[in-house]
């Protein structure tokens, strides 16, 4: 850096000393107005470049040197802050400035498309069981106030279905997964996998079932949602602020505030296509493992589809959107299953 005029403040008074500053042998040398000082550049800090505004060099003892900006300043202090130098070079290129808004938008889209779902899954998997169970109880309490009434199904019918449901559980799941029945005239035929392991079936769904294997097909699908934490993950994905806050804080329990979003999602939203596909595949695997044809899944789905076209209530398919592809997938698997076990597929298991 060539010698130049600058203002030096000693840090003890407000007086400005007019000095000449130059870099000599890796040191900053000052002289003039009673000031004579040399300091190694490694002990100094220079403020970031902002247009052509004056720069300030800070000394360890609190003194400061204010001088006009110049390119050779950055060359002299290049090793002091390489990141800032790189940022400054980008800021001075008009193409970089022009691209900045597009890069910001693309970054935001990628964060919402991939970052938030990844974070939601991470939080859902790591959320303590006690926290998730408490979240599930809170959600069910809210649904009981807003949309549910006590079940009117005979106790014997509920007990029989609960036993069939228990047959689908994997070892150890009976301690964390439970079944519940509710009368829901405002909702209609539906089933919900709540956080914490509670799976709710409405009386209206049970009334639609003609064969218990249809009930088991729905149960297997909801177990798929539960095992993959889909409800919690979907609600978290809709609460990006809660996800990001929990990730940055390192406290997944703090994401429990998303409880207010779960009932709304269950009643008015629907699972993503990826979650539905994952739950379907889990259901097909569960049914086959228990000797039940996936065709029963297609059968109950068609019934639910017909129910949806004949009612103004909120049906199962509002939160589990149907596609011809899902039914076709179930029937293709059923064809293979029934061909392998022709004598058994028609029996109730």
Automatic annotation (TrEMBL):
One of its GO terms (cellular component) is membrane. Keywords: Hydrolase, Membrane, Metal-binding, Metalloprotease, Protease, Transmembrane, Transmembrane helix, Zinc. Its cofactor is Zn(2+). One of its GO terms (biological process) is proteolysis involved in protein catabolic process. Residues 5-78 form the DUF7092 domain. The keyword Nucleotidyltransferase does not apply. GO terms for molecular function: metal ion binding; metalloendopeptidase activity. The chain crosses the membrane at residues 97-120. Residues 156-332 form the Peptidase M48 domain. Gene3D superfamilies: Metalloproteases ('zincins'), catalytic domain. It comes from the Bacteria. Binds 1 zinc ion per subunit. InterPro entries: DUF7092 (IPR055518), Mito/Outer_Membr_Metalloprot (IPR051156), Peptidase_M48 (IPR001915). Belongs to the peptidase M48 family. This is Zn-dependent protease with chaperone function. It comes from Dokdonella fugitiva.
